[in-house]
Amino acid sequence: MTEIMVACDDVSRTYGTGPSAVVAVHGTTCTVPAGARIAIAGPSGSGKSTLLHLMAALERPTRGKVTWPGLPVTADTRAHLIGVVFQSPSLVPALNVAENTGLPLVIAGVDRSEVARRVAEALELVDVAELAAKLPEEISGGQAQRVAVARVLARRPRLVLADEPTGQLDHAAGRRLLDALLAATDHVQAALVVTTHDNAVADRLDTHWTMREGRLFTAVVQS
C-alpha cells in the first residue's frame, strides 16, 4: 500500500469572526501519496496557498483534521521531513550561497562535516554548485530561488510543498527552476505539491487539482 505523506479530512480555514469572517478553505478532503507530483492551480485568492500552509502545519485548520500518516509522529521530527519553498527565496544577505543552504541544518545541530556534504549535494542537484561562495546580491533571482530549493533539499525531506515557486521569475528562469525542482525531488524520492496560477507549470506535474473560492474542485491524473 502506498504511504500517505499528508491527508486533509474535511479541512476548513477561516480568518476572523462574525460578519467579517473570510473562509479561505472550505471542507477539503485530499491525500498526497509518497512520490506524488501534484499541481494545485487557481487564481490568486482561491485558497491554494492556505491549503499548502495547512499541509505544512504552518497553519491550523479551523475545522477538520490534517494528519501525516507516512511521517514521524512527533511534530519536531516531522517538521524536518516537510520542506516548504516560498515565492520569495528569503536568503540571508550576509551569508553566501553555501551558508544559506546549510543554515537550517546548522540550527538543527547537524555535524559540520555532514552539513558540508549535504549542502554540496543539494547545490549540485539544482545546478548551482559553482555559486557556493557567492552572496545573494551577486546572483540572479532565478538562481536565488534554486538556492532556496537547495536549502529545502539539504534537509532530506519526504514532502516538498512549493508555493508559487516560479511566480516572481520570467518564463525561462521559471522553466529552469521547475526542471531543477522536479529532478531534485525525484532524486531524493520526495512527494511534491506545487501551487501555481500558470497552466504551463501545472502541465509539468502528473496530478492536477483546481481551487476556486476556497474549494477543491477537481483531481485529475495525467495519463
TrEMBL record:
A Pfam family that the UniProt record links to this protein: ABC_tran
Gene Ontology molecular function: ATP binding; ATP hydrolysis activity; transmembrane transporter activity
Entry keywords, A to Z: ATP-binding, Nucleotide-binding
Gene Ontology CC: plasma membrane
The ABC transporter domain, residue ranges: 6-223
Matching InterPro entries: AAA+_ATPase (IPR003593), ABC_transporter-like_ATP-bd (IPR003439), ABC_transporter-like_CS (IPR017871), ABC_transpr_LolD-like (IPR015854), P-loop_NTPase (IPR027417)
PROSITE patterns noted in UniProt: ABC_TRANSPORTER_1, ABC_TRANSPORTER_2
Protein's name according to its UniProt entry: ABC transporter ATP-binding protein
